[in-house]
Amino acid sequence: MRNNSDDLFRTLADPTRRRILDLLAERGTLTVSELAAEFPDLAYSGVSKHLMGLRAARLVSARRKGRQRFYRLDGRAMAEALAPWLAKYEPYWSAALERLRNLAEEP
Amino acid sequence: MRNNSDDLFRTLADPTRRRILDLLAERGTLTVSELAAEFPDLAYSGVSKHLMGLRAARLVSARRKGRQRFYRLDGRAMAEALAPWLAKYEPYWSAALERLRNLAEEP
DNA sequence: TCGACACTTTACCGGATAGGAATACATTCC
DNA sequence: GGAATGTATTCCTATCCGGTAAAGTGTCGA
């Protein structure tokens, strides 16, 4: 009896997977090799499996081109499962987020 | 080499812990017994342990009164670790969140 | 067509973790 | 002081999960 939210939070629980999301957020689109290069301590297949997990959670999507596969962020899961959850707790983090925004706008 | 974010997301990964947060969000302050009553399938000690985890992650705080312990939400971790993370991915969920807000304001 | 390449899948292992039961601890009530 | 109550902790076990190595799939190039 596992729902969307469970899968999403489970997927986000792993630091490597969050790091992959960060890399994709910074650089847009990356191949498995490019991503794997960022994790020298991990076997290639490990990175690939993490990407499968992220794909299953709909946090990333993949486009195939030749023998490469280009991954990029896909916010569907965040929008559909995380956003409603966040809404419940908004009072607890929105103020902090606002401060961050203001900070970012200053020199 | 484990940071705040790791602990926070790891703690949020468990459905029972998230359910506890939900209950506290709805009802404000609850004792361990009251919370345990909401989880008939779990042993009392299990709930208590989850509360310890949530406390370690600073997602809840406890006030002691007599032999009872009153737990309530504590947004520090969300504000300090979750909000910055959210800020990075804001484009992916803010639109969805906005829609939710508008929906909530209608009859 | 053969081999190299990019990636995925499978099989397996070790460590982490959720869970229960029993025990320990702290506080109140008698 | 002693029993009862509310909670925390310890010990144990089954399960899950991330990790690797190796085999499998599909594509390109010579």
Task: Give your account of this protein's structure.
Two copies of one chain form a homodimer. Chain A is α+β, with helices and mostly antiparallel strands and 107 residues long. Chain A is 66% helix and 14% strand. The first copy, chain A, contains five helices and three strands, in the order H-H-E-H-H-E-E-H. In chain A, strands 1-3-2 form a three-stranded antiparallel sheet. In chain A, helix 1 packs across helix 5. The termini of chain A are far apart. The model of chain A has no long low-confidence stretch (mean pLDDT 90). The structure holds a DNA duplex (30 and 30 nucleotides).
What are the SSEs and their pairings?
Two copies of one chain form a homodimer.
Chain A: H1 4-12, H2 15-27, E1 29-31, H3 32-37, H4 44-56, E2 60-65, E3 68-73, H5 76-105
The structure holds a DNA duplex (30 and 30 nucleotides).
Number of helices of chain A: 5
Strand order of the largest sheet of chain A: 1-3-2
Taking the sheet with the most strands of chain A, its summary is: 3 strands, antiparallel
Helix proportion range of chain A: 55-70%
Question: Roughly what is the average pLDDT of chain A, rounded to an integer?
Answer: 90
Largest interface: A-B, 34 and 33 residues
- Pairing-aware structural class of the strands and helices of chain A? alpha+beta
Give the ordered list of helices and strands of chain A: HHEHHEEH
Distance between the termini of chain A: 49 Å
**Rg on CA atoms of chain A, Å:** 16 Å
Q: What share of the residues of chain A does DSSP label as strand, in percent?
A: 5-15%
> Stretches of chain A where pLDDT falls below 50 for ≥5 residues?
none
Oligomer class: homodimer
- The number of strands of chain A is 3
Q: What would you call the shape of chain A?
A: globular
